[in-house]
C-alpha cells in the first residue's frame, strides 16, 4: 500500500485499495442524514476480477492507495492466448492474458501503443487509444445505388472482430473504430 486516501477525496475513476485488492471508484455519493454521522455510499469495480461492490464508508474513513503504475507500451504479438507488449523506453516485454484484456483484444494490431496498468509489478489492464484504424478483410460488396439511409451490414476486420458498417464499405477499406464501444466511426481510406 502506497499511502492512504480520505473519503472526502473520493472522485469517479480514482483507484483505491480495499482489503488488499485494487478497485476503481465507479460512483460515489456523500450522504448527510438528519441523525447520525455522514457517510459515503460507493460503487467500486475490482481491477483484478471486474466484480462490482457497493460498500459504505463513514465520513473521514481512510482507505489504501494501491501501488499502481501505468507504462506506455507497444503491442507486439499474440501467442497461446497471451498478448505481448514492449516498453518503448527500455525494451522490456510483458504479457497480458486474453481474459484480463477482455474486449480490448478485438482492437489490437501490431505496433499499437497502449497504457498498461501494473499492480505490484503485475500487468492487470490496458487502456487503448480512443480509436484505431483497422482494415476490412471480409464483407459483402457495396452495390452502386444501394444508399438506404442508416442501413448496416456486418464486416470482419483484420483482428477478427465483426462490426456493423454502412452499405458502401468494401473489403480492403480502412475504418476508424471506437475502442470504447466497438462501433464504426468513419472510413479512413478506400480499397485500391
Molecular structure report:
The strands form 4 sheets. Strands 2, 3, 4, 5 and 6 form a 5-stranded antiparallel β-sheet that branches. With 192 residues, the chain is mainly β. A hairpin with a 5-residue loop joins strand 4 (39-46) and strand 5. The chain is built from 1 helix and 17 strands. It has one helix at residues 98-101; strands spanning 3-6, 15-18, 21-31, 39-46, 52-53, 56-58, 62-65, 68-79, 82-87, 93-97, 113-119, 122-127, 131-139, 152-157, 162-166, 174-178, 184-189. The chain folds into 3 domains: 3-65, SH3 type barrels (Roll); 68-127, Nucleic acid-binding proteins (OB fold (Dihydrolipoamide Acetyltransferase, E2P), Beta Barrel), CATH 2.40.50.140; 131-189, Nucleic acid-binding proteins (OB fold (Dihydrolipoamide Acetyltransferase, E2P)).
